[in-house]
Amino acid sequence: MFDYFQLQKDQKKQLTSQEKKQIRLEREKFEEDYKFCELDGRKEQVGNFKVEPPDLFRGRGAHPKTGKLKRRVNPEDIVLNLSKDAAVPPAPEGHKWGEIRHDNTVQWLAMWRENIFNSFKYVRLAANSSLKGQSDYKKFEKARQLKSYINAIRRDYTRNLKSKVMLERQKAVAIYLIDVFALRAGGEKSDDEADTVGCCSLRYEHVTLKPPNTVIFDFLGKDSIRFYQEVEVDKQVFKNLTIFKRPPKQPGHQLFDRLDPSILNKYLQNYMPGLTAKVFRTYNASKTMQDQLDLIPNSGSVAEKLLKYNAANRTVAILCNHQRTVTKGHAQTVEKANNRIQELEWQKIRCKRAILQLDKDLLKKEPKYFGEIGDLTKEDEATIHKRIIDREIEKYQRKFVRENDKRKFEKEELLPESQLKEWLEKVDEKKEEFEKELESGEVELKSAWNSVGKK
Questions:
Q1: What tens digit of pLDDT does each residue of 332-344 get?
Q2: What is the CATH number of domain 132-288?
Q3: Cα–Cα distance for residue pair 175/257, rounded to 1 Å
Q4: Is 29 a residue whose pLDDT tops 70?
């Protein structure tokens, strides 16, 4: 099986760009009937319209069910939800749908039960659909309403930090942590779920206290993303956390042993209908974003404004502990960027050498400006030269293949090998120029100026 899929993968790599484009167009045409639905007379995009193929379950982080087999989902397992007057899509040949429903009180279009968690999977409308927009609108409106109650809530939880009733103290500390550090509420997890936690499910080992009032949080949050922060907290909060960790508590014991999200949410709804702990994250993230945007002056170019907007977005991401996972090619991308920086530094040094070739007296007049000329060793420069030459060779080789792929697809005459040879001769000339420059220390002036023009 592995060899079969490896062969398919290798064959896919050998396809020309035109063949790949043709396959993509055919796939998009095939998927067109499944990508959209009609909702109240409007054409709406469907989100996850594909059923997952059989596979090994991976999960996130150290998930206890990693490696279990996800079984194939057949049409007989799927329930479709359509209007009564809608045409039922034909099932694949030799199969039939498990059930056809006409329930206009739910948002899903199809569902089936998966075998890993024995739970239902749903096909819903896409993120840009009108229904999704309505739910997002309601979420942010709820956060907007919280603004009218937030001062009262903060006043009360600050007072309750010194309550004589332990449950009240735990509620006060939990709301403080959720409000100030944007922690999720957290809930109980079963043995077959990943060991992720939130505020109410923090355990003894997740919180380290450093007097006078520094707290280190270290735990796996949603999607097994590590939450690690060393922060200063209110002195009374620090005192309460010290109390919550007193013996006989030890690693494995709940920090908030008298509290869970349902108790917390029930308490919060005394302030505002529908208020839950997660509304605080939306509120604080939105307020932080607005505060950051208010600091951006209404001047400068679009690029400058975009840079400041992204910086504001990053501030919110830090508050919410949103992190990007490191991609497979991250190290290679960083290496390319570092190589590019080194090449730009080399080009700058070349230009300064060229200036001195025109007027050597400038070195005495502006020694600081020309100080970096000796920063690169000959070995460094030789490495840079080789990298540039190798890249140029690869560029022309790819160009040759790409041009012939295009001509072959359009049934035109192919480029002769002599064309590639002509391109590579230009690279040989550049290589000779670099070798001469490395040996003599003198720059070909025309080459230096041309390199500046290209940047």
A1: 899 999 999 999 9
A2: 3.90.15.10
A3: 15
A4: yes
